[in-house]
Write a structure and sequence with these properties.
Length: 244
């Protein structure tokens, strides 16, 4: 029964950059930014997508430093990346400002130490309104809580098999939920991280996916909602977007 209804809804688009997706920044002005890291090659790259269509604006961007670099923030149409003092001294140091529509660097200061006034002087608008609205992140509840019993029943999840909290959110009359289920025992024990979209009126599963088939631990923030879309990462490598 679950599989029958799960086939009725499919991701609007998927994007696989080729190496693990380390971090996603929720959409700002209709664009989603991703940070991709290759631990073996010690390389960090970035990508920008249209949040609705999934069209890639640019990808595989190496900026500031090949590894010791991370997303500082996204403001309007600008991506800010910060560096570190040194690999063994991970204190913020240095900044690169990227124009998101084009992927070009518009300003950089290798000696920047967090001075907001310097960014303002460089023409970076620090507090623009996000036309797409603020993202919605799931709330958490323990599997034994009364408030999630209906979710567990509709998803076909037994509370006794769940490791960690149940994450859930509501959008457009749908319930999106995610949880980890234990498999195996001892040193071979792994967790299966699952996600479902439910119709609370009928109790039907409209969509189901496995986020991680064999996770070594519980990971929070399984998904987020923005602009009417659901975003999540499958197997740490594929960004999926779904309109519940």
């Amino acid at each position: 029964m679950v599989a029958l209804f799960a086939r009725k809804m499919q991701p609007a688009w998927e994007f696989t950059p080729g190496t693990p997706i380390w971090r996603l920044h929720p959409p700002v002005e209709g664009r989603i930014i991703g940070e991709v890291r290759d631990p073996d090659g010690k390389s960090a790259t970035f990508f920008a997508l249209d949040a609705v269509t999934g069209n890639c604006l640019w990808r595989d961007k190496t900026l500031h430093d090949p590894w010791w670099v991370a997303i500082e923030r996204v403001v309007g149409q600008k991506l800010l990346l910060h560096g570190y003092v040194a690999p063994d001294f991970p204190v913020l140091h240095g900044i690169t400002v990227v124009d998101i529509p084009t992927g070009t660097v518009v300003w950089a200061d290798p000696e920047w130490n967090g001075d907001e006034a310097a960014l303002t002087a460089a023409g970076v608008e620090l507090h623009p309104a996000n036309a797409g609205g603020e993202p919605v992140f799931p709330v958490s509840a323990e599997p034994g809580d009364a408030g999630v019993q209906g979710i567990l029943a509709a998803a076909g999840w037994g509370a006794a098999t769940i490791d960690g909290p149940v994450e859930f959110a509501e959008q457009g009359g749908r319930i999106i939920a995610a949880a980890h289920m234990g498999t195996g025992a001892g040193p071979d024990a792994r967790l299966t991280h699952r996600l479902v979209v439910l119709d609370p009126g009928t109790g039907r599963v409209l969509f189901a996916d496995t986020l991680v088939a064999a996770a070594k631990g519980v990971a929070p923030d399984a998904f987020f909602l923005s602009g009417g879309m659901l975003y999540y990462i499958r197997e740490r490598t594929t960004l999926c977007a779904l309109r519940p």
